[in-house]
Design goal:
By secondary structure, this protein is α/β, with parallel strands linked by helices. It has eleven helices and six strands. Helix 8 crosses helix 10, helix 8 packs across helix 11 and helix 9 packs across helix 10.
Length: about 220
Amino acid sequence: MTAKTSADSNYILIVSRDGDVTERYSAVLQKNHAVQLSNTLPAMHACIAGSKPVLIFVDPLVCRQNTTPELTGLLKKLAGNHVVVIENATDRMVDQRSLFKAGARGFCRDDITPALLVRAVAQLLDGEYWIPRKLISRMISELANEGSMTAADNTANNTLISSLTPRELQVARMVHLGGNNKMIARELDISERTVKAHLSAIFRKLDIENRLNLALFFNEIS
């Protein structure tokens, strides 16, 4: 393991055997964050045992074989950590759906632009996900197909839901069924700005971070 900085416990860990990747990522990230590097999984675990990073970027090349199954197992072991998978268009493609369900917080290309990498990290540190829109739509659609929303037995969740206004509940249900802001605005005959305002209120009242978490919330109580 090579430490770019060692005093700051709020560091970002980059795990890769590819020197170009670690150089590219660390050159961008160390401008605003403490960064540490690991080139093997044992070194990564040793690093985490010392202090927990705020983000972990993992290159599939550190896996021996069967990349997606091995990464899936790794993500489960790292539960509680925010892990982002580094991808390459040819030799590091992974099953995003499986890895997302296993706990991945995001996916970044190895050649991601500096500006986009900075944006991704800021969003991830703010509690958001960094995943392709197509994957978000696919996951929400899958959740919607698993069953419609019904009354829940969970008292805490019922209390949270009862805090929503009728219109907020309507918007929440439409998001759960895969609706985007434009479609919801059209269906309810309101502006997209109003939809965004309703969503902000919904997120605050349900104590969740984004529309994907909203879909997951309603799916859990279905």
